[in-house]
Amino acid sequence: MNRKVLIFSAIIVCLLIVLSILVFKSREGGRGVAGDGVDQAGVIYGRANDLLKKGKYDQAISDLEGIVENYKDSGYYEEALKSLVSAYMQAGDYGKSKFYSEKLAENFSKEKIIPVKSGKPQAADKVEKESPLVADKAAETEAATTQEMKKSPESPVSASDKSAEDALAAPQVKALTASAEVADKLPENTTRTKDRYLVEYEVQYGDSLTRISKKFNTPIEYIMKLNYLQSDMIRMGEILRIDTSKFSIHVDKAANKMVLKKNGQTFKEYTVSTGKNNSTPVGVFTVVDKMVEPAWTKPGVGTVLPEDKQYELGARWIPISVTGYGIHGTNDESSIGGQVTSGCVRMKNAEVIEVYDFIPKGTEVEIVDGEPVVNPNDKQ
Question: Which residues are catalytic?
Answer without folding.
Answer: 328, 344
